User: Fold this.
Amino acid sequence: MSLYLKYLICVWKVQSPDAFDALNAAGRRGLLTVYVKFYAVLIPGVYTIYTFIDTRSRLSQWLMAILLTAMYSYWLPQIWLNVRRGVARRLRIDYIVGSSIVHLFLPVYFFACPENIAFIRPTPLIWVLVAYNLSQAAVLVLQRFLGALFFIPAVLRPDVYSYCASLPSVDEESCVGADQQTESMHKCPICLMPVDATSSSESAHAVTPCHHVYHEACLASWMEIKLECPVCRAALPPRVDG
Ligand SMILES: [Zn+2]
Ligand SMILES: [Zn+2]
Assistant:
């Protein structure tokens, strides 16, 4: 169990924003570590079940099913996180698909290939596991295009907030003392660049419920990390749009 917890922590680590954003050296190393840890739990687990428990017993089959189901649920925390944030983390699609394929390779080899080196009898149930894992990957990819909440019925959706509201007047913010030039401008607290209040495009800016103004893109990136206003730390509700 503690091994499994360790595994969960390492999944969480990889989902932390700075762990693997680009495919730079550190990112690749991090990814490799995740795969090594994943198989470091999976292979001894399968080996233990096959060595110490009669392969044909019900118990062994159940243990195997539980172990594999638990380990191949690894996309669920990210799907859930996307739902809670109301915004889908911009994971690369090739990363999602590639990751699933790499993770599924060994179990498919052992449970579908009749001449595998461990002499495990092939079982059609392995394809249920493959379908289960790939459907999670599919949900994750679809969340990017259809919005994080696309599969949740409207009545069950959490309270969402539209960040595309019109800009509050600068007076509403505590801008006392601002000089004449900046008075007509909001400044994005993330990139410190002016937010064009006169722009007709509402998607260029975002207004939080606490009336702080950001660039849409800046706030979206921030909300992938934290659901908290960077200025006043008020909670940020999920976005109405994915
Ligand atoms: Zn900005
Ligand atoms: Zn705020």
Q: What stands out?
A: Residues 1-5, 16-23, 172-183 have pLDDT under 50 and may be disordered.
